[in-house]
Amino acid sequence: MFFDKLSRMLNDVFRPKPKYITVTPVTDSGPTQMLPPSKLPRHVAIIMDGNGRWAQSRGMPRSAGHAAGTEALRDIIRASDDWGIEALSLYAFSTENWSRSKEEVAALMGLLLRYFNSEIDELDAKHVKITILGDVDGMPEPQRQALVNAMERTKDNTGLKLNIALNYGGRAELVRAARALAQKVKDGEIEPEAIDEAAFANELYTAGLPDVDLLIRTSGEMRTSNFLPWQLVYAEMVFDEGYWPDFDRAKYLKCLRVYAERDRRFGGVNEPPVPEEKQEAPAQAEEADKTKAAAED
To answer: Which residue of 34, 65, 206, 263 could cross-link 51, Cys pair, CB 3.0 to 4.6 Å?
Structure first.
């Protein structure tokens, strides 16, 4: 077991990195898209929206849309791993989603179980580390056990950090963190003055991960829907008009390119570069002053 884990770590370290992230279009309608890895975000979050509407627009039950969305999910996870994204957080099932019809919730729970049973071998083989964001104990027992097993099996993996939000609510996560810190103060473990942003972030489901750099939401909706409110404070946001089952690598790379072109200031101001002619002006003025002084002498 030790040598197997050591081998995985060495493979991750010496794994060749692509010079450019590329997607070749299926048709001849456009050129190959390219993006240097240095322009990639470290942490991408995706709200996978529109499965039900995708199915209804085709005269199918909403459950068919969720099944189709699973196929898109599989490819986007693979793309994130192939391209070297450090962390990928996916909004799969919120605490509010329990209010949907029993049939739809049952279909989602069934898909969840089938996904982890069918994909865990590949994800583990690719060194993906799975973390569930949300109340795992509140899930039905078969799903809860599958999630616990997936996290335990991949906890030492050093590749893509795959975070799946299930039974998740952003405000509930903040309350959970506040209660944890309050308990530590009550138990005398820390002083109230020791509670800062770092201490608070360490109590979140995403403890140890970088903040989200890029949020993508499909289906044209333009809101965060109670997803990662703390982690998204400085995230760039890109909203794709299409439904999630139609989201593919080409659309993903397009979103990444939009991110790469953004000017991220984090509340500061990035001074524009000084034109070369203005950079040369002080030197020219100094030379003119020397010439004038020599003439006067």
So the answer is: 65
97 classed as catalytic: yes
Catalytic residue among 4, 12, 28, 49: 49
Among 12, 75, 97, 149, the active-site one is 97
Residue of higher predicted confidence among 162 and 23: 162
Q: Is residue 96 situated within a structural domain?
A: yes
With respect to residue 233, please indicate whether it lies within any of the assigned structural domains: yes
pLDDT in tens, 120-164: 999 999 999 999 999 999 999 999 999 999 999 999 999 999 999
Question: pTM of the prediction?
Answer: 0.81
Question: Annotated catalytic, 4?
Answer: no
Residue 228 lies in a domain: yes
What residue numbers bound the domain in which 235 lies? 26-263
**Domain assignment of residue 168, yes or no:** yes
DSSP the chain: -HHHHHHHHHHHHTPPPPSSEEE--SSSSSPPEEE-GGGS-SEEEEE---HHHHHHTTT--HHHHHHHHHHHHHHHHHHHHHHT-SEEEEEEEEGGGGGS-HHHHHHHHHHHHHHHHHHHHHHHHTTPEEEEES-GGGS-HHHHHHHHHHHHHHTT--S-EEEEEEEE-HHHHHHHHHHHHHHHHHTTSS-GGG--HHHHHTTSTTTTSPPPSEEEE-TT--S-TTS-TTTTTT-EEEE-SS-GGG--HHHHHHHHHHHHTS---TTS--PPPPPHHHHHHHHHHHHHHHHHHHHH-
